[in-house]
Design goal:
The complex is a heterodimer of chains A (305) and B (321). With 305 residues, chain A is mainly alpha-helical. Chain A contains eleven helices and two strands; from the N terminus they run ααααββααααααα. The longest helix of chain A is centred in the first third of the chain and has 31 residues. Chain A is globular, with a radius of gyration of 20 Å. The chains are: A mainly alpha (305), B mainly alpha (321). At the A-B interface, α4, α9 and α11 of A face α6, α11 and α13 of B.
Chain lengths: 305, 321
Amino acid sequence: MLYFIEQFLNGIQLGMLLFLLAAGLTLIFGIMDLVNLAHGSLYMIGAYFAATFAAWTDSFLLGAVLAIVATLALGMALEVIAIRRLYGRNHLDHVLGTFGLLLFFNELVRLVWGPAGMTLALPSQMLNAVEILPGLFYPVYRLVIIAVTLVVGFLLYFLIMRTRLGMLIRAGASNREMVGALGVNIKLLYTLIFGLGAALAGFAGLMQAPILTVQIGMGENILIAAFVVVTIGGIGSIRGAFVAAMLVGLVDTVGRAFLPDLLGIYLSESAAANLARALSSMMIYLVMALVLIVRPGGLFPATTR
Amino acid sequence: MTPVPDHLKRLSPRVAANGILLVILALVPVYAAVTGNAFVITLFTRVLILALASLSLNLIMGFGGMVSFGHAAYLGIGGYAVGILAKEGIGSALVQWPVAIAAAALYALVVGALSLRTRGVYFIMITLAFAQMVYYVAIGLDRYGGDDGLTIYQRSRFGGFLNLDNKTLFYYLCFALLLAGIYLIWRVVNSRFGLVVQGARSNERRMRAIGFPTFRYKLVCFVIAGAMCGLAGALLANHTNFISPAMMHWTRSGDLMVMVVIGGMQAMFGPLIGAMTFLLLDEALSNVTDYPNLILGPLLLGVAIYLNGGIDGLIGGGRRG
């Protein structure tokens, strides 16, 4: 039972990270109608920024804040230089263009930081585990991820539902042309949204950095997982992204934790371990395929599409 | 859709360019023999094989409007069919290749039947999801190398009268299969069947209204493309003597899409031009710099932004269709 709770928390934590990535993706998808394969690159660069700035300032927190600001700036610059020329084109042009950006950023990181990975050290007080239930110790840092992401998620909700900027974002999601016709500076709005998405991706990257190694290509597999989340949730829906992120996080983690034992009943240990590894990696795609077969527009389809 | 005979009647720049391209490709082994540079054959064999794969993608993506983001899965399935059979002691190409084609076609049938209910971005994503599943299945195939892949010690055998270890011979076999593929696609696209599929691309609702069961047409088209790419996978496994899950990584599907788009969608020779441009550019850049993608990446972005219609559009003057 304790093991189950632990894995459940791990699932929530993965879901939270996926939500950070998927929220930006779904906004960019839903509002600018842009398929952005370079989103994973911003995740990677956020992690590299954090590792570098933390080393310079000798402070995890300061490094993290600087990294978020830097990713935000990079995202806005990227939008102005390249991305805005892709709006209104077909999705294939998006795939081609942002695939080019993905190759470019991987190579740029290799040029600047070298081919070897980096590590981002945690402050000492986050290295411990706390006893959250009698007999169940859980790493502080993972709890911090869950808490901080919840706060960010709430701020995002507040921004989108309760502020003027959020109102414009929602309006842009349901009818772009009309918002532009009403005199809103739509170009600036798009730049801001893209920057916000980039900052969220960078934030996800730096939060994940202490758990995994910071390395080239780290954004590629999680990007696909984030696309799965966006698609299951329904493109353009933040609420859908949140529900789908939790679903995907839990399915993935719980599958990884319990499938080996489950299959071990029928198979030899090594065969079970391998099969379980393959099956648990497939699970989220299976869930997505099932969702799309039953509901071709995702769980929470945006009303205009 | 301009019917092709018009192009053949007069020597348009496009026909001339494609003709020159074919002559160059036919002479590659001669060049290699004269200069003693065997690497050229290896490189161009890869070009031909990936051109065959992109050709099949162009059928569904260019002509059919079905943007599949999981096309590398067919390459993998074809390759794994050859690799698995070779490992189990079945070396005959007459078994291996039909199995590769049939397996890829069967997979395409299942994926197509399930995916073609969705539209637009959802279609892109669901084809990607299925390809990811195949990718992870390959990783889980412990007996066949799992993550590390599997070396194929003997190329497919044609009972003694064709030895694929001969590089020149293998090159011309790939060349012949590519030409056959282009001819097949040309026939398909200009048939009644092909016109229905293209009609469904431009306006599916109208095609259905005039009585065509478009789902069935698109599904058959999807299966043809899958089978053709399965054959390309079988060739690729023979070419590299190696299979691994990496050949199905989603970025490989991205590569194939890039080849089709830079070559020119809905152009008969577009995929060949695209595959050649992409691979040769990558090779050339790798020779001058340690960071080839620093140039290749922005170049792709530039093609996406400025070169609507790909290289074929550049040669032929504007986009067709």
